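Researcher: Hi, I'm a grad student and pretty new to this. My advisor asked me to get structures for two proteins we've been looking at. I'm not sure of the right format, so I'll just paste the first sequence and hope you can take it from there.
Model: That works fine. Here's the first sequence with its structure tokens right after it:
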Amino acid sequence: MNRPFLFILFALFFLEFSYSQVVNIESRRLKTDSVFVFLGNLSLSFNDNNGSQVFQFGSGLTSQLKPKGSKNIYLLLGDYALIRANGVDFNNSWFLHFRFRHKFSDLIRFESYVQSQHDGLLDVNYRNLIGAGLRLKLVGVEPDDNSEEQSTFKLYLGNAYMYEEEKSDAFNKRFSNHRHSSYLALTYNAGNGKVSILNVLYYQPLYSNFNDFRLLEQLKIEIPISETLDFTTTFNYYIDSITPKDRKQYSSKVYFGFNIEL
């Protein structure tokens, strides 16, 4: 069973927008044999500098159920973030996701999911969706018990149908879309307390117009410093090719932080 862990945010640098409409679920999957896992975090801060007030609140939830002897996994994710300065919201977003997975074989898994999210800073600020598809394990290199080499390498390909409903308060518009959702996920772990890498690329075009697409690229690297402390950095780049304002919208973010296992 995974040990409890606490994530401490060390520094945050972001450009233009806070969250994208495509969320990287791959980085939130739990690699554990435990029947039930619950992870949560909560942060709160208030600053008043000569009348300039900044309020920040954040919370996150990750929960997974994996019944013994079953090939099914149930995953629940949730996030909320608020940054308010002098009565103006610079970030006010939430996200909720539930996913079911059934393993047919080492190669093929079936997945279905529902999701709801809100971000007041984007042209499309409400989005609800439901989807289902297949997840293929293209490459799975793991060390055997007698090998001195402990590195692992995995490559997954996912393809799914997705129905989404979107709302734009800024332009007073609603949309109902049928999209294809595909992703390519690469994970590498050098083993023996060395570097681990996760890279995921999502591509979600409309079936009726492949020029209308969303793309998300995320690269995450963790470097162990000691037995209990890891340095982590994450880079996100997101594109929405056509928004309700008929423009391209993008966001990029870089995170630096520490993971502490107690």
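Researcher: Oh nice, that was easy. Here's the second one.
Model: And its structure:
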Amino acid sequence: MADLARYSLLAAVLILSACANVPVSRPEAVNVKTGTLTPEYSSFNAKVLSEAGSIDTSFVTSLRPEIETVTRLESAYTYKFGEAREQLRVGDAVSTSGMWGSSVRYGGMQFGTRTETRSDIITNSGLAASGLAVLPTVADALFASAGDPGASLAQQNLSVDRSWRTGGLTASDALGRSVAIEAPMIASTRLVEEGCSDLSVGAGKVRRDYAIVSNEYGPTFANTTVTCGVPLGFTVEGHGEYIADETAAVGIGVARRIGPFGTASFSYASSRADAGTGWLAGMGFEHRNDWFSVALRSRIQSREFRGAGATVLDDPIMQRDLASVGVNVTKDANLSLAYATQTTWSRERMNVIALRQSLAVGRGALSMSAGHSLEENIGSSIFVSYKLPFGFARQHRSLVQEFEPIILNPTLIQDYE
């Protein structure tokens, strides 16, 4: 009987997806999406939109008898204040992170003009997370694929492996669900115009056992990110994050474009937790044009520093350095190189180097991805893939993008008709 109920529920989801394109009179609309995560899991998302705001909800269904048949992922109402940029979200949200901070999933409220987090943070909603729902970064995933479990990944029973089909990184949770990680290793620095209209304020409770149970919330959480453009072309950012009985951290970031050379940034933060009072300092530089791109990030921190993403660590990071270079070699070929290294306070060091090349061959694209860890007993890997589309293709150049070690999309963008 229980199996019949599960199959009936999945059938209902498929029927709803078939009806998703039914037109609704303006100014309101209804969007429904379904997807299959694995043969045992399906996802469902529904959103009702109007000129004033939207209501959205999502959940996953499962055929496995040992877990819940339906598990809620996110539910929220978003209200837009007329023509203003401000909006209010009530329900489940992802916190902003600033230049140096972490993002978490929480239930509560979020207000401001900026609601998205840094592009290097993995926000895929289909992954289950044990414990507090702190979101890992692509750098965390890259080190995890080379043998280091990583702070956020280990705490949440997440693992990272290379896809045998593409060579890209895939993250897997304890329930067997896996997703491709599609995000850059180094996020671009945000520069804003003069004024302090770029802000986000959030408060509520951190999600616990996200996508495993529906309505489990943990300690009280709050965070604030305010970014201002000041005279002389500087962008100044203030960011703070707080988890009750865990940690409180506050810091500042400064960035400026240095003429045609690129953008430089610096950040500093201080935290207070059971481990004591700690500090973090970071710096970065990036340059991008039509022919090549360079991005550098470095951070160093004291043993006692604890942000929202590292509240429980036996061996915290002491230093992490990231570098990437991308070059348009010819009209039809692109070469990207990335290097990442980190040292913990117990002097454990990891070095990872990755190379990617994309080349247009006929109407298709040939991609090669190689990775190597400089540590013993880790080894190397190389993946080669060729994509040949059906139909006709026209090719045009794209700007060089910062190295994304887990994506094998060719540099040439191809539109198929």
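Researcher: Is there anything I should tell my advisor about the second?
Model: You could mention this: The helical segments are 2-18, 138-145, 151-155.
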